[in-house]
Amino acid sequence: MISIHVQILLIMLFWNSDCQIIPRIEECGLSCSQGIHCKSKPSSGIFNSFCHNAPASLSSVVLKSMKISTVMKCVQGSPCSLHLNVKGTLSLDENIRGLEICSFSLDTQQSQCINVRFARKKSKMLNGKKVQVQFNCIEVNVAQHIYVTMKTVPNYCEVKLSQEYYVEDCRNSDVGKYIPACSAGKFDYNVDKARKIISVNVSNFLRDQDYYVRLCHKWFTCEDVGAFAVVKGKESVKSVSLKYSQLLPCLCIEGWLAIPDARRIQLCPFENDTKELWDNIVYNPATQTLAWEPACPVLVTVNLCRLMKSNHHCEDIQNSSKNSAEKVKYSRVDTHPRLCMKFMTKQGSWVKCPFAHGEFPAWKMRTAAAAEQIQVFFTSQTKAQFSVFVCNRTQLASCESVGMHHSVSVGWRTDVDYSVPLQICDIHCGFRDQTYSDGNPAKAMTHRMKSVHSLH
């Protein structure tokens, strides 16, 4: 039952914010009923801030009620503005010369006060009569949180009305349409792909107001990508530069005025740039886990596949298909150079082979020369068997064996120190891509490694 009541309340609040019609006026002013002549003047609120004990004859409910609403002042040729419309009912008394109406902004900590004075002669003649005072010249901002007080003049203790009030925000149809502060602006942009910078020019927003611009990734909400930039309203330059890391389909430019609850606009110009989505592949050699996590929301089917040498077709691996808009993970994966991930969406398919260029090596080898031995060191992340032999390089791509083959098995996540007998060969032979400590004759040797292990 409680949740139903909360839902109804939320619906009512939303309806009030979005659908409430705000009355429009051409001029603001002060009016008093019962033919009472009254006039207003600005007040600092200081002189009437201290209260006095009320006379015994003065009723404590001399101030009957106070109602607050918003009105919109629209003069032809000028932008519309919002004002508080304050109505109060007072029982006239010879001890009261007038009213003081004050508004205090809880957002800016600024106050505005107005003094309302009655004509003394008529007010004495109408003692006990109720007069309604209406004042609608206190200008306010969109979505402002206001505290309004109404006190007698002079200020009698405990004879006071107060009320909190929220000014409508840009979701209100009238405010959003006619108040310049709700104009969310317009973007023009340029992309410098070499420097990875997006230059954004902002126009059509309220003059003299600062404007915020940021890049964000749009999921359910738009999540920050770096800090926002500020376009200074008082400066002539209305452009900013924003750095990005990837041009993703969910990368958006978002902007809003620097006022409370300002309406935001978004421009997502890279919706068709999906190619960088498939690069976010991560391999953990310790757990042999291959994972892909989308940088943007996307409906995709992912398969593991084997890249065929003959026609470069990637053949799906059975029972590896996963449909997901979130993270995809495969366990116990070997780092074979022809093991790939295939991504399929409505826009097409893409194949990524993360092990093709050695970014995630399954094993490493280094060599060092001793007196009559070549020491070969293996570090392996997977269970595998290796063959080692010394050979003469006869051509660029071939090496002729000059000794016995030596086999060694390496366990999962272990190191092996293995020695091969040294043989001298032709002086034109040489080790490639290895480091050595001195000028040992082993520099005149070459090696070839074979890894005998298959996909798990």
Provide an overview of this structure.
It contains three helices and 33 strands. It is mainly beta and 456 residues long. The radius of gyration is 40 Å and the shape is rod-shaped.
In terms of topology, how is this protein built?
Blueprint: H1 2-19, E1 24-25, E2 30-32, E3 38-43, E4 63-73, E5 81-91, E6 98-105, E7 111-118, H2 120-125, E8 130-140, E9 145-153, E10 160-166, H3 173-178, E11 186-192, E12 197-203, E13 211-218, E14 222-224, E15 229-231, E16 239-243, E17 251-257, E18 264-267, E19 281-284, E20 289-292, E21 300-307, E22 314-316, E23 322-324, E24 328-330, E25 339-345, E26 348-352, E27 363-369, E28 373-380, E29 384-395, E30 398-401, E31 406-410, E32 414-421, E33 446-452
Parallel strand pairs: 1-4
Antiparallel strand pairs: 2-8, 3-7, 4-5, 5-8, 6-7, 6-9, 9-10, 11-12, 12-16, 13-14, 13-15, 13-17, 17-18, 19-20, 20-24, 21-22, 21-23, 21-25, 25-26, 27-28, 28-32, 29-30, 29-31, 29-33
How would you summarize what this structure contains?
This protein has 456 residues and is mainly beta. The protein is built from 3 helices and 33 strands.
Gyration radius, rounded: 40 Å
User: Ends: how far apart?
Assistant: 56 Å
Number of strands: 33
Helix content: under 10%
The profile of the biggest β sheet is: 5 strands, mixed
Annotation field: number of helices? 3
Walk across the major sheet and give the strand order.
Answer: 1-4-5-8-2
Helix-strand makeup class: mainly beta
Give the low-confidence spans.
1-18, 423-456
Whole-number mean pLDDT: 78
Percent of residues in beta strands: over 45%
Question: What quaternary form is this?
Answer: single chain
Global outline: rod-shaped
